[in-house]
Prior knowledge:
25% of the residues lie in helices and 22% in strands. The chain is built from six helices and twelve strands. It has helices at 28-40, 60-68, 97-103, 138-152, 167-182, 206-215; strands spanning 2-6, 46-49, 75-77, 111-114, 118-122, 186-191, 219-224, 231-235, 238-242, 253-260, 263-270, 275-278. The longest helix has 16 residues, at 167-182. The chain is globular and about 45 Å long. 44% of the residues are buried.
Amino acid sequence: MRIGIIADCQYADFDSPDLAPQRKYRMSTNKLQQAITFFNSQDLDFVIHLGDLIDQNKDSFKHLMPILNTSRHKIYHLLGNHDFYPVWPEQEIRNNHQELLKILNMPSKYYSLITDEFVFLFLDTNEVGVIEWNEGTKEYLEGELLISQLRKKGYINAQTWNGALSSAQLGWIEQQIKMAAKSDLRVILCGHHPVFPSHRENLLNSEKVLEIISNYPEVVMYLNGHNHDGNYGEYRKVPCITFFGMVDTNENSYAVLELSGNKGYIKGYGREINREIKLR
Ligand SMILES: [Fe+2]
């Protein structure tokens, strides 16, 4: 199985901010087209974008969709924190999840894809927190409380741009894994936020996902974006791979993930790193 991977295209029509001069927002359209054109020359099963397709302006989707539509492979999306951000007008944004799902052609905020060998679980790592919800809503206030509690406990990832999975979504993951196990399928988790190694960009309740990873031998990999610098760690022999963010630097970044038996191989392009991975 061969899969094209892109993380954090994060296009916007403005200059790099002083605080993040490495973010080259306007270059993302060309970089995305270059990645898709390359993927079109490859024999792939599908392509995954790991969230943060846009930086903050809903109009940015209009510039990206014609590019994504040139892909001859199906592209599976998941939701990043930036996909929810204004300048979607306040009434329209965060609680209007249906429009976002329609734009990205997603069946729901989290969903599964079953192939011959694997079940891919595309997660919504923004579900709990302040990212998806309008200020003042019950969900937003609960999110704010969670972040302040974690901050008091000294969590380095207790940041407003990180989210968590609800207990309902965690239950859904376990149910999906149990179903996969019955069919002798292995499971690959894909989320926007990292879970391992420890990092200030990590999912707010990453320990819950790591518990699932260690409880179910069917889980063979966790793939994510969000930390544009890339990262890698193995939690109880499960590779947790952070892909480099396309938006950063003048150089592009994308990858092809090959899975064969108990071997995985990431061929990185641009900033992305080649990695050989052993699947348990
Ligand atoms: Fe992000």
